Amino acid sequence: MSFRFKAVCDSSASASGEELKKQVVNLGDGSEVVHISRFLPLAESWKWFDYLDKEIPWIRPTIRVYGRSCVQPRDMCYVSSPELMELSYSGYQPHTHSWDDFPRLRELLDAARISEFSIFYVVTTMKNLIAFVVLFFVKVRKALPGSRFNSVLLNRYKGGGDYVSWHADDEKLYGLTPEIASLSFGCEREFLLRKKKPKAALQGQGKTAAEEPLSKRLKSNTIDQHSFNLKHGSLLVMRGYTQRDWLHSVPKRAKATETRINLTFRLIMQ
Ligand SMILES: O=C(O)CCC(=O)C(=O)O
Ligand SMILES: [Fe+2]
C-alpha cells in the first residue's frame, strides 16, 4: 500500500486567471514535489493528446539495462538544441530533434516573447508542436515563477503494460538540483517516488538502489514512499534534491488499458 502524503496546499493563478489548486509536498532534506491535478482544462488537454499522439515521430528504442539489450517499454521522442549537451541514458543516445533546420520557426518563438528559451525541434509537421511547446512553457512558467527549461522528453505509454522503471533523472547535464516539470495526458497512471537507500548500505549488499525490492523497502519504512495519480491535464514538478535522493517510476497497471502521453521539461546546464 502506498503512503498517503501530507500535502501543504496552496494555490496560484493559471495563465487564464482561474485558481489552480497546487499541492506542495515537502519530501525533506531539500527535496520537493509540486502537484497541480487540474493544470489544463480537459477539452484542451484532449486536443493536445490527439495532436501529440498523431504528429510526434514516436520511436521505441533498444536500450541497455544491467548489461542486457531490451526494447524500451514505452515510445519516446526528444527535443532540444544542438548546442546543448546531448542526453544519453541506459546506453542509448536519442536523436535530438532540432529547430535550427527550420529557421522560420524562430519567428514563432519571438512572437511568443520567450526568446530566452533556446529550445526546439521540428520535423515536417512540427509547426503546431512548436506552438504547443511554447504554450506550455509559458503556462508552466506562470504556475512556477522562476522555472527555466530548454529541452523536453516525450513518453507514450500505449497501455498498462508500458512503464518506466525506478530511476532518477540525475544525469550530469541537468546539474545537482534540477527542476523537472511533467505534464500528463490521456490515461491516468500512478507515479511513485521512493527514497534512495544510502549508498554505503547498498554497496555492502552488492546492489544498486533501483534493484532493492519494493516490498522490502515498504516493510522497513513506508514513509519513504509517495504516490500520485497523474490525471489527464495534470502537472507534477520535482525539484531541489529529488533526483539525488529519490527514485521515481510509473509501474505497469493491468487496468490502465488506454494510452498515456507524458512530457518532462528540463533545463540542460550550459
Ligand atoms: O511518465 C512519467 O510520468 C515519468 C517519465 C519519466 O520519469 C522520465 O521520462 O524520466
Ligand atoms: Fe524520470
From TrEMBL:
All copies of domain Fe2OG dioxygenase, residue ranges: 148-269
TM stretches of this protein: 119-138
Binding positions for substrate per the UniProt entry: D170
Molecular function in Gene Ontology: broad specificity oxidative DNA demethylase activity; cytosine C-5 DNA demethylase activity; ferrous iron binding
Positions with a binding annotation for 2-oxoglutarate: N155, Y157, H167, H248, R260, T264, R266
Coiled coil, from the record: none
Keywords attached to this entry: Membrane, Transmembrane, Transmembrane helix
InterPro entries for this protein: AlkB-like, AlkB-like_sf, ALKBH2, Oxoglu/Fe-dep_dioxygenase_dom
GO term, biological process aspect, one: DNA alkylation repair
Family: Belongs to the alkB family.
Entries under PANTHER family matching the protein: ALPHA-KETOGLUTARATE-DEPENDENT DIOXYGENASE ALKB HOMOLOG 2 (PTHR31573), DNA OXIDATIVE DEMETHYLASE ALKBH2 (PTHR31573:SF1)
Protein's recorded name: Fe2OG dioxygenase domain-containing protein
Organism whose genome encodes this protein: Kalanchoe fedtschenkoi (Lavender scallops)
